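User: I'm writing a tutorial on reading structure tokens. Could you give me a worked example: one chain, its sequence, then its tokens, then a sentence or two explaining what the tokens reveal?
Assistant: Sure. Here is the example chain.
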Amino acid sequence: LAKARLKASSAASSAASALSSAASSVASAAASRLLAKYDVIDCGNSATPLQGGVHGLWMIAHARNTKTNQEVSIWTFDKRKYTSDPRYNKVQSYKSAVHTLFDIIRRDGSLMAKLIHPRVLKLVEPFEETAASFTVVTEPVVGSLHDVCGNVREFDLGVAEVLAGGVQLAQAIEFLHTAGLVHRGISPWTCVVAEDGSWKLGLGFVYAKTSVEADELRDAFNFPPHDANDGPPIHAQLAYTAPELAHPSQPNASTAAAAATPMQSLMDFGIDNTMGAVPSTVATPPDAAADIFSLGAVMFRALSSACKSQTTELISCKGNAATYRRMLLDAPNSTGGAGARLHELRNLLARSGSAMMNDANEPIFDLLSNALSQNPSSRPSAANLTRHPAFMRPETQALGMLDNLLAVETVPKVQFLQSLAGLLPAFNVRVKKSRVLPPLLDELRNANMQSIVLPLVLEVGQSLNSNDFSAAFRPHLASLCSNATGESLLLLCSNVPRLQNILTDQAMAQYLIPLLVRGCSESDVRVHVEVLKHIPGIFSTQRSNYAHLQMLLPQVKRLALETTAASVRVNALKTIASVMPHLSKEEVDGIIAMLGAIADHDRSSATALCVAGVIEAASKSGGIERECLSTLPLLITLLANKSLSLSQFETLLSLVNGSIQRVGNARRKELKEQADVQRTISQSGGMNTTSSFGSMPQPALGATMTAGMGAADPFAPAMPSGAPVGFGTTAYAGGIGMPSRAAPIAGGQASTGL
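And here are its predicted structure tokens:
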């Protein structure tokens, strides 16, 4: 699935340095019991190490279990980054802050171990702490959402994918709220993209609290009125924190006075509510509403990445409470304010979205506006948010359905697959490769679904690099080509051009050519027709060779001779005509002999014309001798076919005349060249007719010229009218159409009886 990970480029020194730092972080936990069980594969396909968890404090490396080969992600927090700082032993406040940070990291591990949900990152191994590090092993991830939005190479987010991920995060938040837990730390660093492309809540539950417990981490939301320093980051991430948490002791007057209606909450940003509010049926407590605000800010970040926006965050404040207030509360619609940035994103969505997604722009904008309302009571609950029109779009739901396709019941699955082709244009190439293609390939194992799934697989394959698609499709193609029958085989043979376009030369030779051979051996006439229609296209390119033709030609000839279906014989003859230039002389001669048998057996006009087409192709590739002795006589016999219409007869007659014309032109040229050679020799006096023709039998005295010439030669020069049998000193020797000096007779007298 979504394995968008390659080794970091050694050409980029900064990337190499960063990866070295990540490797060092992993190595720092060398004493870890967990790490002894895994081999680190790489640190991600990124310019810098993959980072996740609160403030991105965890380094993420991809690893494999040495015994089971299970792939995992190893998260490492290097304590020594802070304990080795000189301030740790000199400044008490710094040391105290470090220990506070370690405490909340431990709290994160304790909560994560208790949370089991499809939208929460799964722990493979529990948290482990050593003197040098914290370590945890999880299911494999591509990276945090922060990495995906700008750090992981070749991971271009699409709008449809962001919406699908957003609804998955909303489902995770709904799960937490149902369990009475509020996250309070949702950010791009605490959300992850799993290898299957789904979005989940990852490490970062450090600020979470239940609705009944005392808030022991209240100080984490008392943000300083200046940019954050390089000390231990014990505060929450202010840019993604709701205003009611950011200023709990000093609520903003305008916020407190804001009306609770959705229309007025939208007007916080000067936005017209054109979509209407999502109805709220469940009261959302203010602390839970903070998670909805954070989700809105995260989605703004992801959508900005999908639109290639230069603006990365809704509130760029660097942990500074004064900047936060100015951007969000005091002047949201001023240049650079949160409201202005929201409008900027709205315009970007309109310009950069695909044609299919254009009508999604307003629902998306409405969703963000409601989630980012300054008034907590105006934000929808997590349950209602999952049903927002932006999340209910077919493209969004399609990705969610694909994530669980094997578990879907047959009837809704068929309905979904039938509609999927129309949704494919909404997905970019990476999404098609990592999230659409894999579940479709898995579904190919179901023989009952193959006729629906295979066209979708081939359609997706058209968008992908042929090598990538071949690598993914080849394991399934081998089984399909070997075992497909009935409609599945017909479907494969009908899609030969698509397969030809997306398969490598090696895969085509290994699977496609044998598939065509097997198709010729089937009893289904429809399969025969499809195979025969596509063979000419295969041999019109440079990708096929003589060995492939040797495999197919006997099958095609057999079909032409033995079939009882006119459509099969016609297509077989057309196929033979198309490959004629690639055949040897012996193979062409064998086909010409076969054509006579076909013409005698099948007297239909369609067959006669197709036989003529093959004859014409053979004539052009075989020379005049073959045309005179084989193809022209066979072509002439077709004129006697009683089933021909007048236009068909005229077509055949034109072929006959064309063949005669070619023979006539070639023979005239040949004979003229012979005559020119003999004339040149004669004029130079170097020809000895006695030695040349003396051995030829002489006609009897008194024999006529006609008798000497034998049958009339239609291509010989005409005799002069009224000329005597022997005239002058020249005669036509033996009727070969070549002027020659008369041979002298004994006694020196010229012969007058020849």
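What the tokens reveal: The mean pLDDT is 77. The first strand starts at residue 38 and ends at 42.
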